[in-house]
Amino acid sequence: MYVVQMASECAPVIKAGGLGDVVFGLSRELTSRGHCVELVLPKYDCMRYDHIWGLHEAYRDLYVPWFGGAIHCSVECGWVHGQLCFFIDPHSGDRYFNRGKVYGDWDDQMRFAFFSKAALEFLLKSGKRPDVIHCHDWQTGLVPVMLFEMYQYHGMEKQRVCYTIHNFKHQGTWGVEVLQATGLNRAEYYFTPEQLMDNGNPMAINFMKGGIVYANYVNTVSPHHAWEARFTEVGCGLQPTLAAHQSKFGGILNGIDYGIWSPEVDDQIEMTFSIDDFENKVINKKALRERFLLRESNQPLVAFIGRLDQQKGMHQVHHALYYCLDRETQFVMLGSASESSINDWFWHEKLFLNDNPDCHLEIGFQEELAHMIYAAADIIIVPSNYEPCGLTQIISLKYGTVPVVRGVGGLVNTIFDWDYDETHPLETRNGFVFYQNDRVALESALGRALDLYHNEPQLFAQLAKQGMVYDYSWKTPGDQYVGVYEHIRHK
């Protein structure tokens, strides 16, 4: 099967969040099964060019229709750790992807509307006719709209679209100008509740809604999050649209790449280890303490790794920090803030606790430190307000680091409470879960984890090893996505 992935990110060359990991991981899994997979991405000036091999010009003069004229682009291609990637490079005064960052500008919607148009134009003009175009998040929500309203009449009538939503919070909305720019036009046709009109703002079109309406199959990144999106406020206003298209909507859990995230092969940690030599994990704990100037002791080490963002439950992270210190437990945090208020808040805490030998707050993100923390920590907390899938808890399991999670989204599908999960026998449980979004609930779950660590160290080690056995690789998601592709290509 021939699959083209269209996305705004692909790790490690373009990574602003988990989307990049998923796009690369799924592509590599599909390639390993013998499918032909190509990726179409924007050519950002801030990409990690050191991860691209053999970058060269693949298509010199791509003229992309835009606002009644055309923008001259070139397309370069290269290999990113074995995956063939094509990079759209517009030569325009708007400098769409030469901003020194991936997201965060006032015209992001128009930037990615242009990328979607250019990606389809590239397929059309280069003669590429994939069986399936797999699009991701709002940035490519207009791809299936333009494919089925325009490009199918120019030789692309057989292409089918799988559309994956990673985060319903960010949907991409803009006014009538985007219809004029892309050539869709016909505002009276698209500005209807059945088409692209935003469910909360009748003066805006919604990119993500367009993807849901027009794609052949739509999924989010865990089964439980698919249910939440349909029936709770997590759908962020798209619940009626999902209900109207429920027959083609589902949830497929993300995987992770164990070639990168496994303590058995990780070259960024002090000492590799496995279930068979689990005792070597403590060497990584000692190395992290030395790195962060924490005192050596018999205390457990609790960690948080993730964006410092409201989604991640920062009020609970803050409370967990002081709860751990009160219980003579060490705490480390790694993450960068997306909001200045959260950044200022945790910088204040960092300076206030700077001389405390039992905690370290690393504000900013370094991949190497993430590996070290996963390998060193005894417990990791994931107290998210909502979590479409979550990779943190999946990675931590592999490193024998026990997750304490809030029971939302993909966390429900991956973590099973040691004390209370009646759907799994004790020998297959792998963490601690709380459901209410308050301090009492957090303390209950984290407290149970710390009590087990102190009072039943052998059982705690058994729990950690039970987590290491779980297979959250791309194998099962790969099977499911191939099944989706086969289904829609024969419709």
TrEMBL record:
Pfam families membership: Glyco_transf_5, Glycos_transf_1
Q: What is its EC number?
A: 2.4.1.21
**What region holds the Starch synthase catalytic domain?**
3-243
| Pathway(s) | Glycan biosynthesis; glycogen biosynthesis
Recorded catalytic reaction(s): these are: [(1->4)-alpha-D-glucosyl](n) + ADP-alpha-D-glucose = [(1->4)-alpha-D-glucosyl](n+1) + ADP + H(+)
The molecular function GO annotations come to: alpha-1,4-glucan glucosyltransferase (ADP-glucose donor) activity; alpha-1,4-glucan glucosyltransferase (UDP-glucose donor) activity
Q: Where does ADP-alpha-D-glucose bind?
A: 15
- Glycosyl transferase family domain: which residues? 294-453
Function field: Synthesizes alpha-1,4-glucan chains using ADP-glucose.
State the similarity comment.
Belongs to the glycosyltransferase 1 family. Bacterial/plant glycogen synthase subfamily.
Its recorded name reads: Glycogen synthase
What species is given as this protein's source? Phormidesmis priestleyi Ana
Which taxonomic lineage does the organism of this UniProt entry have?
Answer: Bacteria, Bacillati, Cyanobacteriota, Cyanophyceae, Leptolyngbyales
